[in-house]
Amino acid sequence: MKQPLANILPVAPTPFHADGRVDEDGMRRVIDCMIDQGVDAICILANYSEQFLLSDEERLLLMRLSLEHTAGRVPVIVTTSHFSTEIATQRALAAQSMGAAMVMMMPPYHGSGLFPAPQGIFEHFEAVSNAISIPIMVQDAPLSGVTMTVELLARLAKELENVSYFKIECPFAADKLAALIEAAGDHIAGPFDGEEAVTLLADLDAGATGTMTSALFPELIRPIVTEFRAGNKDAALAQWQKCLPLINHENRQCGLRAAKVVFREGGVIGSDYVRHPLKPMSDRTRSRLLQLAGDLDVLALRWGK
């Protein structure tokens, strides 16, 4: 990449047929829709891609399919998290060999109580960084149960050449982003937030240069970032206020199912199936989601019609 990635790098949902099989053509249509949404990059195999419900064979299939179909139109970020350092390294090498622009990794964890000490976390990222030549994004999220201190994150940035992007989506993310930028700013190419942009304005105030949302409606969230970075903070605030009801509903009520429901409604994919033990969205939550998305005329609702 000639320039650091910024603005909006959404996570692609993984479409399944109604019987639970991976929908390969649906995955291609997801990628095409996201590119039409004006995204700056696409992240695959992340938590919002149901990565924890995919077999190793399915991961490999989806990675190859996504990179081949994207064909360089936008950069692709591949999530390669695993508790095993060896497996995380092999996943990162495979992603790089297929043309990924970046990999994203959570710290190693298994459940909420099995994770290494800070030095072990550092060595985990060090092994991957030494094996590849593309950037690594560190995902700091409550899902792992791992507390990654600013000191540890700054050390990763300062001492590991390829660790240069950070997705901070823990409580009080803005304060953590500001502290991390102060501690290691020259070593950070991309400070990002997540959580569907529910804290985006505060995180931009703290120095974030982009956000990693779902694929639900990045075409309307991206202007929040671009206007803010251009110095048009009133316009950024107005756009965030416009988007916030849908952002909040997705973040608090829908989770990863939101993009699938809207993509199905808009003809992008044929089914919004989520794999067990996840459960389908309730009719009540679905109705509100589609109302809010319709009020904003999100692209995915009409992309395939």
TrEMBL record:
Swiss-Prot/TrEMBL keywords: Lyase
Signal keyword on record: no
Alphabetized InterPro entries for the sequence: Aldolase_TIM, DapA-like
Keyword Translocase: no
CDD domains found in the cross-reference section: DHDPS-like
Entry superkingdom: Bacteria
Similarity field: Belongs to the DapA family.
Listed name of the protein: Dihydrodipicolinate synthase family protein
Organism per entry: Hoeflea ulvae
